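Let us practice reading a record.
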Amino acid sequence: MIYVCVPVHNEAKTAGLVLWKVRQVFTAFQREYQLLVCDDGSTDGTGEVLTRYSRVLPLSITTHRERRGYARSLEELLRLALERTDRPKRDCAITLAADFLYSPDAMDDMVKRIESGADLVVAEQVAGAGQRPRAHRFVRHWTPRLLPVHGVRDSVSGFLALRLITLRQALRPISDGLLRTDGWIANAELLARLVPHARRVDTVPVTGRYDLRQRPSRIQPWQMLMAAWRARPVIRAAGAAVLLLAACGIGSVAAQQDTVAHPAATPPAAAAAPAAPPPQPVPFPIGERMVFSAKYGPFSVGEATMEVAGLDTIRGAEMVHITFHIQGGALWYHLDQLLESWVGRNDFRSRRYVTQTEERGKKRNNTFEIFPDSGFYREAGVDSAKPTVADPLDDAAFLYWVRTVPLEVGKRYEYRRYFRPDRNPVIVVVEKREKIGVAGKKFNAIVIRPIIPKGRGIFAEQAEAHIWLSDDPQHLILALQSNFSFGTVTLKLKQFSVPPAPPPGHP
């Protein structure tokens, strides 16, 4: 998860454009993100702009009725990101101004560097476009030199990405506020407190777009220069105090850095939120394949295949690729439908869902990108994001997930896990036990009726679908029955295969 932290004060003309540009970056770059915005006592309509964008973006807004300053707003957003993450060794925060001084386009490079092992990435201004007063240029040039931070040339840019475990370590020895300065100087102080805990610090070049700014600069050059001069001891002490506390045993900086660099060495429970249940991994082996015959009454009308097709990677996370393909028809009716699902191997949550349907000569394709950590999903071709549930499942994923849950005859279960919230709860009625003959054998089976309210397809309420699951720990899908426009079709298992287990000691 990437938390984009944007402090805002009277930026009505540019705040929405910046947020929308962030959306465009992550639409192309495809990473899960949340926008955290602090409206610090704005009086120019900024709040109304943010409210409008919150309807279509994964945006959380914190509002200060009276202005508290840039540093207080920034620290509040960073602490909120740290509070929300359950994986601080993996997740990162990006701090970004809302005045369009720096383009969000640089964020993909910054995130890539975090993913490759950096703990802190600073966007350093190497050039400026647009006219600025000479005094402003002079102060912008000399302030970073007055406030030096090890490994960073531009200590006051304020555009940076940090691994959240680095922030957590920086906060450990601090009992009160993290930042005691404000404005440009607070950016230098933040870096001074973070750098000692960062195993690797990277920089990326950016251009200051003063020509895109829609308001006059709030910097009073000579006052800022004097404030930077007075803040030099604070910045020096910020870094030195952290190192001193570490040396005294409050925490070994080197050991903490190694933990960040090698998260696998830390027990999994250490990175999880205390109240969160442990993630449920996908238990089905890669290569598991079920083939079904499709019958309409006594007539064979086609075939269906369910398969755990392989492993994949989506937005840096390991996925299990699941497919459900049904082909067949009779007389005037023909159906060819492929459902594809990508679910997290370690958390069984949908990240991508693709349907390709050809029915009666008409083709319909839908692709959904699902961002469970961000709490939204997008449909290809629809220019907006919609909210999703905490642990989303799609139709194909549900067919596998239902095999993992305990089911008791006579009970009705409701699960709010369908990725489109308006179609929840998914209802499962466990109707009975009975014997069923498939694949040349007799099986004890549990008969369930799954219902997706307002849904379409084989699990729609009007489809009156039923699934026969083997009454054993595998819960194989032995048969599936659903109503189509021309009548009831029953799928019966005719072939089941799993790959052989690897020999002992084989990876």
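A brief commentary: Residues 241-278 have pLDDT under 50 and may be disordered.
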